[in-house]
């Protein structure tokens, strides 16, 4: 079996490490465990050194966010498989083995996601990843087990192994050679949707992303940036548009981008009717940031873009107009 590194990115998360690191240490005998610290000012480093001396510590020089934080840390990690794990993830017994077996059997499988359930309500899927991710024609993400705000109960319906389009960064398995070939996450993203961008680039390069339902983890979600935070809205809208500039097929680039900008405007109107004016301003800020950086991100486009990146035209239409609340619908 290939050498494996479980890498937990941390920033001032000593409470999360106290709560969740024990399960990772207990149930990951196949791996070397690292805590990659984004220049925490709390007692995170002291806690790990005192209570888990077997865990290796990588100290970044600043709070680089998710994307650059992992890029900086993984430069010094030489195991064959990286397993990137949020600090608010509880893992389960034997969680690594099914995914690692999949890597052994399938050389073109580059990225894997386990089943992600809600730590606070373990009978249900968790928002960030659930049973594996997809995007529609306009790059709106959705998951098996989660479409917009509708979360499915886990009834074993996603206990399979199958190809998906994107894997959640909450628990993200990737081959080291692929991570380095694709130059890791896009550090400009800082946080949010950088994993979808990386999966899209892997897809355009001919690699496969898989979901492995035999492996289960539990995710708190929103432990670092709450769902209702306007900054999260800003990052999601901005990063999604950046991702489209980089990865959409040439023939679809500007028509799809234009349609997406209109749909974002509709989302802004919806926020306005709900009285969530800070979120409206977040969308406006996101759009203007994209306008000022459009040429920078067009230069990041790869040599090829696959036309078959989506399964349905509009998840927004399916969900709001056709009442398609579940993935099966």
Helix/strand layout:
Layout: E1 4-10, H1 14-26, E2 31-37, H2 44-51, E3 56-59, H3 65-74, E4 81-85, E5 89-91, H4 97-105, E6 109-118, E7 121-125, E8 133-135, E9 141-143, E10 146-147, E11 150-151, E12 161-164, E13 171-175, H5 176-181, H6 194-204, E14 208-219, H7 230-247, H8 253-273, H9 277-298, H10 315-321
Parallel strand pairs: 1-2, 1-4, 2-3, 6-14
Antiparallel strand pairs: 4-13, 5-14, 6-7, 6-13, 8-9, 10-11, 12-14
Structure, described:
- The protein has ten helices and 14 strands.
- It has a domain at 230-309.
- The longest helix is centred in the C-terminal third of the chain and has 22 residues, at 277-298.
- The strands form three sheets. Strands 1, 2, 3, 4, 5, 6, 7, 12, 13 and 14 form a ten-stranded mixed β-sheet that branches.
- Helix content is 38%, strand content 22%.
- Helix 7 packs antiparallel against helix 8 (253-273) and helix 8 runs antiparallel to helix 9 (277-298).
- It has 329 residues and is of the alpha/beta class.
- The protein has helices at residues 14-26, 44-51, 65-74, 97-105, 176-181, 194-204, 230-247, 253-273, 277-298, 315-321, and strands at 4-10, 31-37, 56-59, 81-85, 89-91, 109-118, 121-125, 133-135, 141-143, 146-147, 150-151, 161-164, 171-175, 208-219.
- The mean pLDDT is 95.
Rounded mean pLDDT is 95
User: What is the straight-line distance between the termini?
Assistant: 39 Å
Task: Say what oligomer this is.
Answer: single chain
Number of helices, counting only DSSP H or I runs of 4 residues or more: 10
What would the principal axes of the Cα set say about the shape? Answer: globular
Determine the fraction of residues in helical runs and give it as a percent range: 25-40%
Largest sheet: 10 strands, mixed
Low-confidence stretches: none
Helix and strand composition category: alpha/beta
Q: Would you report the number of β strands?
A: 14
The H-and-E topology, N to C, reads as EHEHEHEEHEEEEEEEEHHEHHHH
The Cα radius of gyration reads 19 Å
Fraction of residues in β-strands: 15-25%
């Amino acid at each position: 079996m290939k050498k494996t590194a479980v890498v937990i990115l941390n920033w001032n998360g000593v409470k999360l490490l106290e709560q969740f690191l024990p399960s990772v240490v207990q149930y990951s005998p196949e791996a070397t465990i690292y805590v990659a610290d984004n220049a925490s000012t709390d007692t995170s480093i002291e806690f790990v050194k005192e209570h888990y001396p077997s865990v290796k510590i990588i100290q970044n020089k600043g709070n680089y966010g998710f994307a650059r934080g992992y890029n900086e840390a993984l430069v010094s990690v030489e195991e064959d498989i990286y397993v990137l794990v949020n600090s608010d993830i509880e893992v389960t017994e034997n969680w690594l083995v099914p995914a690692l077996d999949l890597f052994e059997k399938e050389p073109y499988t580059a990225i894997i996601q386990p089943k992600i359930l809600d730590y606070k309500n373990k009978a249900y899927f968790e928002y960030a990843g659930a049973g594996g991710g997809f995007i529609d024609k306009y790059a709106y993400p959705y998951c098996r087990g989660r479409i917009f705000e509708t979360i499915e109960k886990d009834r074993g319906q996603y206990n399979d192994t199958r190809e998906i389009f994107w894997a959640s960064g909450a628990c993200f398995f990737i081959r080291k050679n692929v991570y380095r070939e694709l130059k890791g996450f896009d550090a400009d993203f800082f946080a949010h949707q950088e994993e979808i961008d990386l999966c899209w680039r892997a897809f355009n390069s001919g690699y496969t992303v898989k979901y492995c339902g035999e492996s289960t983890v539990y995710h708190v979600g929103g432990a670092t940036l709450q769902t209702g935070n306007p900054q999260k809205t800003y990052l999601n809208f901005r990063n999604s548009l950046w991702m489209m500039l980089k990865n959409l097929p040439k023939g679809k680039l500007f028509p799809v981008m234009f349609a997406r900008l209109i749909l974002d405007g509709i989302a802004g109107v919806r926020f306005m009717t709900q009285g969530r004016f800070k979120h409206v301003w977040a969308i406006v800020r996101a759009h203007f940031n994209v306008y000022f950086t459009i040429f920078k991100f067009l230069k990041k486009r790869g040599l090829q873009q696959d036309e078959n990146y989506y399964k349905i035209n509009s998840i927004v239409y399916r969900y709001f107009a056709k009442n398609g609340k579940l993935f099966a619908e």
